[in-house]
Amino acid sequence: MNDLRAEHDAMLTRLSARKSTFHFAHAAVSIFVAGVFGGAAWKLSIDLEYSWAPSLVLPAAVISGVALAYGVLRLIVGRVVLQTEVVEFERLKGLRKQLKLDEPATFVAVAR
């Protein structure tokens, strides 16, 4: 029983900080930045009559591509991490059921 409780506590500690949300947040910001720089590159390519515009199209496009690739990579990593978190959460729910932590009788005993 103590082994189950130790595994429960360790898993609860591991799952308390969701790493997948960190990856998804990075993906969202990176894809947003890619959109901004992609739009800037597109607008600069339209404004070719200005002397400074052509020199900025390629760097803006490259930054957009790199940010998009980074965002997609973070999205993929986030999905993989989320899948492992779901499996661990199911195991945690099973441990809570085995340890009878969610039964009403346990709440009454703890409250006294």
Give a structural overview.
This protein is mainly alpha-helical. The protein has one domain (2-12, 21-111). Helix content is 86%, strand content 0%. The protein contains 4 helices and no strands. The chain has helices at 2-16, 19-46, 54-98, 104-111. Helix 2 packs antiparallel against helix 3. The longest helix is centred in the C-terminal third of the chain and has 45 residues, at 54-98.
Helical percent range?
A: over 70%
Strand portion: under 5%
What is the overall pLDDT average?
87
Count of separate structural domains: 1
Q: Which consecutive residue ranges, at least 5 long each, have pLDDT under 50?
A: none
Return the string of H and E elements.
Answer: HHHH
Report the C-alpha radius of gyration, rounded. 24 Å
What are the SSEs and their pairings?
Blueprint: H1 2-16, H2 19-46, H3 54-98, H4 104-111
Helix pairs in contact: 1-3, 2-3
Question: What labels describe this entry?
Answer:
112 residues; mainly alpha; 4 helices
Q: Briefly, what is this?
A:
With 112 residues, this protein is an all-alpha fold. The protein has helices at residues 2-16, 19-46, 54-98, 104-111.
